[in-house]
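Project standup — Tuesday

K.O.: blocked on the structure for the chain from last sprint. Re-posting the sequence here as requested.
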Amino acid sequence: MLNMLFVKGQHLKTVLCTTPNKYVVIDAAGAVKPQCCVDIVIRHRDVRSCHYGVIDKFRLQVSEQSQRKALGRKEVISTLLPSAKEQQKEEEEKRIKEHLTESLFFEQSFQPENRSVSSGPSLLTVFLGVVCIAALMLPTRGDVESLVPLYLHLSVNQKLVAAYILGLITMAILRT
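H.V.: unblocked you, prediction finished:
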């Protein structure tokens, strides 16, 4: 609530706003008698959390009634703040969200198995991967022109198994 006091002659008051659809100004314009005081009541129409912290401006203009010439103006800044209850509720919701995020992160990073921290895949995994790659590079049964002995020629099914195992090893390595 704003309070205005005028000492000499009768004056006119006008209240302007940057967002008039958000506010209701009781008696936004009118006359002020000499030696009188006027209360200006401004009410927020739409109190929602999305409007908290938004800065709006009001301009109070005073003019002399006989000349309608502006004598002066005053700009008032208004910011809608949440009530103590709403602020406490928002802080509690924020803490709950942070707690859930932390617990989710903890669950994802926690490994129930007692694995030792390693810098990469185990030696057995690497060895098995190399064997599968070598098997895939060997000739297939039926290839005639090859320098590799016939007992090292693999069937298509054997190569498919080697490719499958190599894929599993690759996925295991990329997960760690």
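K.O.: great, moving the ticket to review. The radius of gyration is 40 Å. The longest strand covers residues 55-64.
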